[in-house]
Design goal:
Elements (H helix, E strand, L loop, with lengths): L1 H25 L2 E8 L4 H16 L4 E8 L4 H13 L4 E10 L1 H8 L2 E4 L4 E3 L13 H17 L4 H6 L18 E3 H6 L10 H7 L6 E4 L4 H9 L2 H19 L6 H19 L5 H18 L6 H17 L3 H25 L34 E4 L3 E9 L2 E12 L4 E8 L2 E6 L3 H4 L1
Parallel strand pairs: 1-2, 1-7, 2-3, 3-4, 3-5, 10-12
Antiparallel strand pairs: 5-6, 8-9, 8-11, 9-10, 11-12
Helix pairs in contact: 2-3, 2-9, 3-4, 9-11, 10-11, 10-14, 12-13, 13-14
Length: 440
């Protein structure tokens, strides 16, 4: 009886062991991380989170699903550092294109495979607005591509020819051209590790057949922050921020212009902060600059507060960008567009549309059907002085009494001598009095 019991126990133990081995084999998983579109700082946060999840879940490998035209060089280098520190094998699956920084990222993996019809190469660095960068940057990027290719046993000359136009490889690329390889060419040159039709086929090549595929996807905040720091979107945010700040400066009180300006700048700095591109120093420097500009608004003359505040705002915008070059480019473009937009808005829309509620440009005349308990027509031709700066609108004093007034054109400082040249209901228009002695 005891022998039968022992036999049954041994059989059960063997069955349990076999079942655990089967379960363990079936639990082999591979994380698939998409690299779609531009390689930018927002995606880097997603990559870091995905690699951490793969590590914690016990994944056997990670596959980067590549279809990218490239992106930020700094971001690609940071991604390579993450892959170098990662202990699990990482493979690249080039599904359509791996160009520029995408080619560099493919070379940084343990092995990369390409689908039929896909391409890799064209890794020459370019400026945000187009054009070539200086030799120093090209030389550095060429060295990065060479060393990364050598580390993975690839031909470094092929990697270099993807960056530098001056290199020629017999039968592949001529001087003056950038090298881009098709899947067939890359496999023939042993630059890629093979051509596959799917991720499942890739896993067959690396002895991970039958693995469970777990697809990682970006969170809402990762997608939003990545979208906000896109150079085009970031520039538009700066344009709207500067435009609405100008609207706020040129109108009395604090209104919708100030709120929209704060909102635009908040999105710009918030996006760069969330993606880790900038930190608290740049954001605090911007807020410091805004405070100084507000102080300047209530002090006659454009003095130390205004200059310091403007410099602080400019530096903070540049520091918060993905690179100094990107920051300067976006700042100049946004200032130019915002300046032109502000000029046109106040020149042509001052007396109509939504702006007339901002700049006190309505004519409340009797002919227009308005009636007023106060008649300011007696002020016509009288002289007084400004008691606040007239950023188109402000306050003046005539014979000891204060009135809201509108400058005929341009900005007037406090304590300027002015003359009333037009009265339309509540609207008092003044012109600066120029000293006759100065005119001689």
């Amino acid at each position: 009886m005891k022998r039968k019991f022992s036999f049954v126990f041994v059989i059960l133990a063997i069955l349990l062991l076999c079942s655990s081995l089967v379960l363990q084999a079936s639990s082999v998983s591979v994380y698939v991380i998409p690299v779609k579109g531009q390689i930018e700082p927002g995606w880097l946060l997603f990559l870091e989170r995905s690699l951490k999840m793969a590590q914690e879940s016990g994944a056997q490998a990670v596959v980067l699903d590549l279809d990218t035209p490239g992106g930020f060089i700094d971001t690609a280098r940071d991604a390579k550092k993450l892959l170098d520190e990662f202990t699990i094998p990482v493979y690249a699956y080039i599904n359509t294109d791996a160009l520029s920084a995408g080619a560099y990222l493919a070379l940084a993996t343990d092995k990369f495979f390409m689908t039929p019809g896909s391409t890799i190469g064209a890794a020459e660095p370019i400026l945000l607005g187009g054009g070539q960068v200086d030799e120093k940057v090209i030389s550095f990027w060429e060295a990065e591509m060479r060393s990364t290719a050598e580390r993975r046993g690839k031909d470094p000359l092929i990697a270099a020819a993807m960056v530098r136009r001056q290199l020629a490889i017999n039968g592949l690329v001529k001087v003056g051209e950038l090298l881009t390889l098709t899947a067939q060419e890359a496999e023939k040159l042993s630059f890629s590790d093979g051509t596959v039709n799917s991720i499942s086929e890739l896993l067959d090549r690396v002895d991970l057949s039958g693995s469970e595929l777990i697809y990682s996807s970006a969170t809402f905040w990762e997608r939003l922050s990545g979208w906000l720091i896109n150079p085009i979107i970031a520039t538009l945010l700066l344009v709207s921020g500067f435009f609405f700040v100008v609207v706020e400066i040129l109108t009395p009180g604090f209104g919708i212009g100030g709120l929209l300006g704060i909102f635009s700048f908040g999105l710009y700095f918030g996006g760069h902060f969330l993606t880790g591109v900038s930190g608290w120093p740049a954001t605090l420097l911007f807020l410091f600059g805004i405070v100084l500009l507000v102080i300047e608004a209530f002090i006659p003359g454009f003095g130390i507060f205004g200059i310091t505040g403007l410099v602080a705002v400019i530096i903070s915008i540049i520091l918060s960008a993905a690179s100094t070059a990107y920051g300067i480019y976006m700042l100049l473009i946004s200032l130019l567009i915002a300046g032109i937009g502000s000029f046109l808005s106040f020149k042509y829309l001052q007396r109509k549309g939504a702006l007339k509620s901002f700049v006190l440009s309505q004519s409340a005349t009797r002919e227009a059907g308005y009636s007023s308990g106060t008649d300011y027509s007696f002020l016509l031709g009288k002289e007084g002085q400004t008691i606040t700066p007239l950023r188109l609108t402000g306050k003046i004093e005539i014979e000891g009494k204060r009135y809201d007034a509108v400058s005929e054109s341009g900005f007037l400082e406090s304590n300027e001598k002015v003359k009333v040249i037009k009265v339309e209901g509540y609207r008092i228009v003044v012109r600066k009095i120029i000293n006759k002695e100065l005119q001689r």
